[in-house]
Amino acid sequence: MQHDTPPVLWRISDGRAGHDNQSLGLLDALQERHPLNSLSVPAVSRAGLVKGLIVRAWPDDPPDDDAARPHVIIAAGHATHGSVLLAGHLYGAKTVVLMRPGVPTGWFDYCLIPQHDEVLPSARILLTCGAVNRIRPARNQDRSQGLILLGGASKHYHDGDAVLFTAIDTVAERCADIHWRISDSPRSSPHLRQHLQALRQENLHFTCWQDCPPGWLARQLDRAYSVWVGEDSISMIYDALSAGARVGLLPMPRKRYSRLHRAVDELAAEGRVCRYQDWQADGKLPPPGPPVQEASRCAAELIGRGLFDRSSAP
Question: What's the predicted TM-score (pTM) here?
Protein backbone atom coordinates (compact mmCIF):
# COMPACT_ATOMS: atom_id res chain seq x y z
CA MET A 1 0.00 0.00 0.00
CA GLN A 2 1.34 3.43 -0.97
CA HIS A 3 1.22 6.38 1.46
CA ASP A 4 1.16 9.92 0.08
CA THR A 5 1.90 11.70 3.36
CA PRO A 6 5.20 11.53 5.27
CA PRO A 7 5.18 9.42 8.42
CA VAL A 8 4.69 11.19 11.76
CA LEU A 9 7.46 10.79 14.34
CA TRP A 10 7.07 11.60 18.01
CA ARG A 11 10.21 12.38 19.99
CA ILE A 12 9.29 11.89 23.63
CA SER A 13 11.47 13.93 26.01
CA ASP A 14 12.09 13.87 29.75
CA GLY A 15 13.56 17.38 29.54
CA ARG A 16 17.13 16.35 30.34
CA ALA A 17 19.67 17.97 28.05
CA GLY A 18 21.86 14.86 27.76
CA HIS A 19 18.92 12.69 26.74
CA ASP A 20 17.65 15.32 24.30
CA ASN A 21 21.14 15.39 22.76
CA GLN A 22 20.70 11.70 21.96
CA SER A 23 17.15 11.72 20.62
CA LEU A 24 17.60 14.95 18.66
CA GLY A 25 20.75 13.52 17.11
CA LEU A 26 18.81 10.53 15.81
CA LEU A 27 15.90 12.73 14.71
CA ASP A 28 18.22 15.04 12.74
CA ALA A 29 19.84 12.07 11.01
CA LEU A 30 16.49 10.46 10.15
CA GLN A 31 15.17 13.73 8.72
CA GLU A 32 18.20 13.99 6.46
CA ARG A 33 17.40 10.60 4.96
CA HIS A 34 13.63 10.37 4.89
CA PRO A 35 10.71 12.85 4.67
CA LEU A 36 8.77 12.94 7.92
CA ASN A 37 6.73 15.18 10.20
CA SER A 38 8.03 15.33 13.76
CA LEU A 39 6.59 16.41 17.10
CA SER A 40 8.38 16.83 20.42
CA VAL A 41 6.16 15.41 23.16
CA PRO A 42 6.89 15.59 26.91
CA ALA A 43 6.93 12.33 28.83
CA VAL A 44 3.84 11.89 31.00
CA SER A 45 3.78 11.24 34.73
CA ARG A 46 3.00 7.87 36.31
CA ALA A 47 -0.50 9.08 37.02
CA GLY A 48 -0.82 10.07 33.38
CA LEU A 49 0.29 6.62 32.27
CA VAL A 50 -2.38 5.00 34.43
CA LYS A 51 -5.00 7.41 33.08
CA GLY A 52 -3.91 6.69 29.51
CA LEU A 53 -4.27 2.95 30.01
CA ILE A 54 -7.70 3.33 31.62
CA VAL A 55 -9.22 5.70 29.04
CA ARG A 56 -7.15 4.28 26.17
CA ALA A 57 -6.03 7.71 25.03
CA TRP A 58 -2.92 9.87 25.28
CA PRO A 59 -3.41 11.84 28.52
CA ASP A 60 -1.69 15.13 27.64
CA ASP A 61 -2.95 17.14 24.65
CA PRO A 62 -3.88 14.05 22.65
CA PRO A 63 -3.74 14.30 18.86
CA ASP A 64 -7.13 15.39 17.54
CA ASP A 65 -6.66 14.19 13.99
CA ASP A 66 -4.83 11.56 12.01
CA ALA A 67 -2.16 14.07 10.96
CA ALA A 68 -0.69 13.99 14.49
CA ARG A 69 -0.95 10.27 15.17
CA PRO A 70 2.57 8.81 15.36
CA HIS A 71 3.91 6.08 13.12
CA VAL A 72 7.31 6.08 14.87
CA ILE A 73 8.26 7.04 18.44
CA ILE A 74 11.83 7.67 19.62
CA ALA A 75 13.12 8.59 23.08
CA ALA A 76 16.12 8.54 25.40
CA GLY A 77 16.04 8.21 29.18
CA HIS A 78 14.42 5.68 31.49
CA ALA A 79 11.75 8.20 32.49
CA THR A 80 10.43 8.16 28.91
CA HIS A 81 9.99 4.41 28.55
CA GLY A 82 6.50 4.22 30.02
CA SER A 83 5.34 6.98 27.68
CA VAL A 84 6.94 5.26 24.70
CA LEU A 85 5.21 1.99 25.49
CA LEU A 86 1.84 3.70 26.07
CA ALA A 87 1.97 5.67 22.82
CA GLY A 88 3.18 2.65 20.90
CA HIS A 89 0.27 0.63 22.27
CA LEU A 90 -2.35 3.32 21.63
CA TYR A 91 -1.33 4.16 18.08
CA GLY A 92 0.34 0.99 16.84
CA ALA A 93 3.54 2.96 16.28
CA LYS A 94 7.05 1.55 16.04
CA THR A 95 9.17 2.35 19.07
CA VAL A 96 12.88 3.18 19.35
CA VAL A 97 14.77 3.78 22.61
CA LEU A 98 18.32 5.06 22.80
CA MET A 99 19.84 3.22 25.73
CA ARG A 100 19.61 -0.12 27.48
CA PRO A 101 16.07 -0.09 28.89
CA GLY A 102 15.19 -1.13 32.40
CA VAL A 103 12.46 -3.38 31.00
CA PRO A 104 12.83 -6.23 28.47
CA THR A 105 14.25 -5.04 25.15
CA GLY A 106 11.57 -7.09 23.38
CA TRP A 107 8.96 -4.58 24.56
CA PHE A 108 10.35 -2.11 21.99
CA ASP A 109 10.76 -2.46 18.25
CA TYR A 110 14.35 -1.20 18.30
CA CYS A 111 16.91 -0.44 21.01
CA LEU A 112 20.11 1.50 20.31
CA ILE A 113 22.46 0.34 23.06
CA PRO A 114 26.12 1.32 23.59
CA GLN A 115 28.40 -1.65 23.01
CA HIS A 116 30.05 -1.11 26.41
CA ASP A 117 26.78 -2.32 27.97
CA GLU A 118 27.78 -5.76 26.65
CA VAL A 119 24.44 -6.72 25.09
CA LEU A 120 24.28 -9.06 22.10
CA PRO A 121 23.02 -7.50 18.83
CA SER A 122 19.82 -8.79 17.24
CA ALA A 123 17.11 -7.79 14.80
CA ARG A 124 15.85 -5.38 17.45
CA ILE A 125 19.13 -4.32 19.06
CA LEU A 126 21.67 -2.07 17.34
CA LEU A 127 24.97 -1.67 19.17
CA THR A 128 26.46 1.82 19.10
CA CYS A 129 29.94 3.20 19.62
CA GLY A 130 29.09 5.25 22.68
CA ALA A 131 25.83 7.14 22.98
CA VAL A 132 24.17 8.55 19.88
CA ASN A 133 24.42 12.35 19.91
CA ARG A 134 23.77 15.51 17.94
CA ILE A 135 27.41 16.53 17.53
CA ARG A 136 28.73 16.99 14.00
CA PRO A 137 32.38 17.00 12.88
CA ALA A 138 33.94 20.34 13.78
CA ARG A 139 34.40 22.83 10.94
CA ASN A 140 35.87 25.78 12.83
CA GLN A 141 38.56 24.33 15.08
CA ASP A 142 40.88 26.94 16.54
CA ARG A 143 44.18 25.98 18.22
CA SER A 144 43.65 28.77 20.75
CA GLN A 145 40.32 27.34 21.96
CA GLY A 146 39.88 24.48 24.44
CA LEU A 147 37.01 22.92 26.34
CA ILE A 148 36.83 21.19 29.75
CA LEU A 149 33.72 19.12 30.53
CA LEU A 150 33.14 17.79 34.04
CA GLY A 151 30.76 15.26 35.56
CA GLY A 152 30.81 13.97 39.10
CA ALA A 153 30.36 11.01 41.41
CA SER A 154 28.30 8.08 40.11
CA LYS A 155 27.81 4.37 40.71
CA HIS A 156 31.12 3.85 38.87
CA TYR A 157 33.22 6.70 40.35
CA HIS A 158 33.90 8.30 43.72
CA ASP A 159 33.93 12.06 44.27
CA GLY A 160 37.14 13.34 42.71
CA ASP A 161 36.94 17.08 43.27
CA ALA A 162 40.39 17.48 44.83
CA VAL A 163 42.05 15.56 42.00
CA LEU A 164 40.14 17.57 39.40
CA PHE A 165 41.16 20.89 40.95
CA THR A 166 44.84 19.99 40.62
CA ALA A 167 44.44 18.64 37.08
CA ILE A 168 42.56 21.68 35.81
CA ASP A 169 45.12 24.06 37.29
CA THR A 170 47.94 22.07 35.68
CA VAL A 171 46.28 22.02 32.25
CA ALA A 172 45.64 25.77 32.41
CA GLU A 173 49.22 26.53 33.43
CA ARG A 174 50.92 24.24 30.91
CA CYS A 175 48.58 25.33 28.09
CA ALA A 176 48.51 29.04 28.91
CA ASP A 177 48.17 29.95 25.21
CA ILE A 178 44.75 28.27 25.09
CA HIS A 179 41.52 29.87 26.29
CA TRP A 180 39.68 27.15 28.20
CA ARG A 181 35.91 27.15 28.58
CA ILE A 182 34.69 24.91 31.40
CA SER A 183 31.26 23.53 32.17
CA ASP A 184 29.96 21.10 34.76
CA SER A 185 26.92 18.81 34.76
CA PRO A 186 23.96 17.93 36.99
CA ARG A 187 26.15 15.29 38.68
CA SER A 188 28.81 17.82 39.69
CA SER A 189 29.02 18.61 43.40
CA PRO A 190 28.25 22.07 44.82
CA HIS A 191 31.86 22.10 46.08
CA LEU A 192 33.20 21.66 42.54
CA ARG A 193 30.87 24.34 41.23
CA GLN A 194 31.96 26.80 43.90
CA HIS A 195 35.60 26.15 43.07
CA LEU A 196 35.00 26.73 39.36
CA GLN A 197 33.09 29.95 40.05
CA ALA A 198 36.06 31.20 42.05
CA LEU A 199 38.64 30.57 39.31
CA ARG A 200 40.84 33.58 38.61
CA GLN A 201 43.15 32.35 35.84
CA GLU A 202 42.78 34.57 32.81
CA ASN A 203 42.56 31.65 30.40
CA LEU A 204 39.76 29.84 32.26
CA HIS A 205 36.09 30.74 31.84
CA PHE A 206 33.40 28.76 33.67
CA THR A 207 29.75 28.42 32.60
CA CYS A 208 27.43 26.43 34.87
CA TRP A 209 25.44 23.78 33.02
CA GLN A 210 22.22 25.51 34.09
CA ASP A 211 23.34 28.69 32.32
CA CYS A 212 24.32 27.02 29.05
CA PRO A 213 21.83 28.03 26.32
CA PRO A 214 20.52 25.44 23.85
CA GLY A 215 23.24 24.37 21.44
CA TRP A 216 26.07 25.61 23.69
CA LEU A 217 27.94 22.30 23.72
CA ALA A 218 27.73 21.82 19.96
CA ARG A 219 29.02 25.34 19.35
CA GLN A 220 31.94 24.88 21.74
CA LEU A 221 32.89 21.52 20.22
CA ASP A 222 32.79 23.07 16.76
CA ARG A 223 35.61 25.43 17.82
CA ALA A 224 37.62 23.49 20.39
CA TYR A 225 40.92 22.07 19.23
CA SER A 226 41.56 20.27 22.52
CA VAL A 227 38.95 18.85 24.90
CA TRP A 228 39.41 17.50 28.41
CA VAL A 229 36.61 15.38 29.84
CA GLY A 230 36.17 13.83 33.28
CA GLU A 231 36.76 10.08 32.88
CA ASP A 232 33.37 9.40 34.48
CA SER A 233 31.46 11.13 31.65
CA ILE A 234 31.38 8.52 28.88
CA SER A 235 28.68 10.37 26.90
CA MET A 236 30.70 13.60 26.85
CA ILE A 237 33.81 11.66 25.84
CA TYR A 238 31.92 10.46 22.77
CA ASP A 239 30.57 13.96 22.16
CA ALA A 240 34.17 15.16 21.87
CA LEU A 241 35.15 12.20 19.66
CA SER A 242 32.14 12.93 17.45
CA ALA A 243 33.45 16.44 16.86
CA GLY A 244 36.89 15.11 15.92
CA ALA A 245 38.71 16.84 18.79
CA ARG A 246 41.91 15.85 20.55
CA VAL A 247 40.63 14.32 23.77
CA GLY A 248 42.21 14.07 27.21
CA LEU A 249 40.73 12.30 30.23
CA LEU A 250 40.74 14.01 33.61
CA PRO A 251 41.24 11.54 36.46
CA MET A 252 38.42 10.36 38.70
CA PRO A 253 38.81 7.73 41.46
CA ARG A 254 37.14 4.51 40.41
CA LYS A 255 34.89 2.25 42.39
CA ARG A 256 34.85 -1.49 41.71
CA TYR A 257 35.99 -2.24 38.17
CA SER A 258 33.04 -2.17 35.77
CA ARG A 259 32.17 -2.41 32.09
CA LEU A 260 32.28 1.39 31.91
CA HIS A 261 35.88 1.38 33.13
CA ARG A 262 36.65 -1.28 30.53
CA ALA A 263 35.22 0.92 27.78
CA VAL A 264 37.36 3.88 28.89
CA ASP A 265 40.46 1.67 29.09
CA GLU A 266 39.85 0.42 25.56
CA LEU A 267 39.60 3.96 24.18
CA ALA A 268 42.90 4.81 25.86
CA ALA A 269 44.58 1.61 24.63
CA GLU A 270 43.45 2.40 21.07
CA GLY A 271 45.00 5.88 21.33
CA ARG A 272 41.69 7.65 20.79
CA VAL A 273 41.94 9.44 24.13
CA CYS A 274 44.85 10.32 26.42
CA ARG A 275 44.91 9.82 30.16
CA TYR A 276 45.98 12.77 32.28
CA GLN A 277 48.98 10.93 33.70
CA ASP A 278 50.21 10.06 30.20
CA TRP A 279 49.74 13.65 29.04
CA GLN A 280 51.88 14.85 31.95
CA ALA A 281 54.86 13.04 30.44
CA ASP A 282 54.97 14.97 27.15
CA GLY A 283 52.11 17.49 27.21
CA LYS A 284 50.57 16.16 23.99
CA LEU A 285 47.11 14.88 23.21
CA PRO A 286 46.74 12.22 20.50
CA PRO A 287 45.78 13.34 16.99
CA PRO A 288 42.09 12.72 16.34
CA GLY A 289 40.81 9.82 14.34
CA PRO A 290 37.77 9.99 12.06
CA PRO A 291 34.87 11.65 13.91
CA VAL A 292 32.42 9.18 15.45
CA GLN A 293 29.05 9.69 13.72
CA GLU A 294 26.72 7.11 15.22
CA ALA A 295 23.51 9.07 14.63
CA SER A 296 24.05 8.94 10.87
CA ARG A 297 24.99 5.27 10.87
CA CYS A 298 22.07 4.23 13.07
CA ALA A 299 19.54 6.28 11.09
CA ALA A 300 20.61 4.56 7.89
CA GLU A 301 20.49 1.16 9.60
CA LEU A 302 17.01 1.75 11.03
CA ILE A 303 15.63 2.89 7.69
CA GLY A 304 17.21 -0.16 6.06
CA ARG A 305 15.47 -2.35 8.62
CA GLY A 306 12.09 -0.87 7.67
CA LEU A 307 11.54 1.77 10.36
CA PHE A 308 9.26 3.81 8.08
CA ASP A 309 7.70 0.85 6.31
CA ARG A 310 4.14 1.07 7.59
CA SER A 311 3.38 -2.52 6.72
CA SER A 312 6.32 -4.23 8.46
CA ALA A 313 7.47 -5.09 11.96
CA PRO A 314 11.00 -6.09 13.05
Answer: 0.89
